[in-house]
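Lab notebook: predicted structure, single chain.

Context: the supervisor wants predicted structures on file for every construct in the current expression panel, including those that have not yet been purified. This is the next one on the list. No modifications to the sequence; it matches the entry in the shared construct table.
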Amino acid sequence: MTRKIEKGYCAHNRNITEVWCEGCSYVNYGKDCHNNQLPLLKLANFTLHKQDEYVEKWRELGFEIDPAPRSPLVEYEKEEWTEAKIFKTVQKEIEKIYEEGYKYILIGGLANVMIYAYHIAEDLGINTIMAKTLRIRTEDGKFVFVPQGYATLLNTINMFDLGGDSI
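Prediction complete. Output recorded below exactly as produced.
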């Protein structure tokens, strides 16, 4: 029987996005231990970058991503951004994401924006993930990004339950 953990960590301290079968230690994102595809998880893109070219990669990882960027563009040189204004802007967008039924957000961008997004999402029960991306420099000095996987950020309740050695 395949079980899926909805919130928190299983008895084996596995991440909430992983699944496993009774008596089986095999884990594979997006599939159960019998290689059956699991329903894709709805993922909002809370970055500033379109994810159109990575939709299939996200599907392989078990997510149906909305590729449109949803993070606010904070340009200090173009307008006045206080921390309160940034927080309220992030809060408004994360609440929209919640109302649209997303259970996961992909984050990446300015540290303060992402920290606010993480905490607001956690309060709403939305899981926060970050991409694990290989960066390859081209001959002309630009970067090519190659998604390799993702990591689910610990929520603050589980983070402190793990103890120092588990982290």
